[in-house]
Every structure is written in C-alpha cells, then in structure tokens.
Amino acid sequence: MIIIDISVINILWRKKMRNYNFHDLLEPLEFQDLICDIVQIRDNIFIETYKEGRDLGIDGLYTDSNKKIIVQAKRYKQDFKKLYHDLRYIELPKVRKLNPTRYII
C-alpha cells in the first residue's frame, strides 16, 4: 500500500506562510531542498536529495531495512488540473514501479 502524505503543505499553511509565493521566490532546486528539509525535521530522518534532471519521480529518498520513503516536491503555479493530471498519469506509474512504503508529495 502506498501512503501519500501532504502534511508538509499543511505545516507551511499553519505557519502563516500561506501568503508566500514559493513559485516566484524559489528556484525548483531551492523548493525541493526546502520541502526535503521540512520532512527531515518533522520526521527526524536524513533524506538524500538529487540534482536536477531525470530523477524517476524521486526528489528525496530515505531508506533503511524496513522503509523506503520517497519525497516528491511539485511546484505548480495555480494549476490544480495540470498537477492532478501529472500526478495521476505520469507520477503514479513511477511510484508504483518504485514501490515505496511511503510517498510524500
């Protein structure tokens, strides 16, 4: 079973950051690093991050003998339909192939 975790977004929202425009303020890799840093702090784990490029749907990865956690940071500018489409038809097949115990988007 794949668990999709959107709690990072909830953390940002609760911390009064809802007025920040991360799309304009941060480059894609900066946004990815921010998301991975938040997950690391929240879950007390070390997440390996990757350079920009073809990452097979992995922006951050944590593995141990029991877990495989994948972090995917998505940066869409007010286009939920495109985000939903990409998650369903592009990312989901990748996630199924990777078979993580947890998938954080």
Draw up the topology in text.
Blueprint: E1 4-5, H1 7-17, H2 22-25, H3 28-43, E2 48-49, E3 60-63, E4 68-71, H4 80-98, E5 102-104
Characterization of the model:
There is one protein chain. The chain contains four helices and five strands, in the order βαααβββαβ. α4 (80-98) links the parallel β4 (68-71) and β5. Helices cover 48% and strands 14% of the residues. Strands 1-5-4-3-2 form a five-stranded mixed β-sheet, covered by helices on one side. It is α/β, with parallel strands linked by helices and 105 residues long. The longest helix has 19 residues, at 80-98.
List keywords for this structure.
single chain; globular; 4 helices; 5 strands; alpha/beta
Q: What is the general shape?
A: globular
What is the H/E order?
EHHHEEEHE
Mean pLDDT, as a whole number? 81
- Tally of DSSP helical segments: 4
- Taking the alpha carbons of the first and last residues, their distance comes to 16 Å
**Structural class category:** alpha/beta
Strand content: 5-15%
Low-pLDDT regions? none
Overall number of strands: 5
Query: Which strand order spans the largest sheet, edge to edge or round the barrel?
Result: 1-5-4-3-2
The value of Rg in angstroms is 13 Å
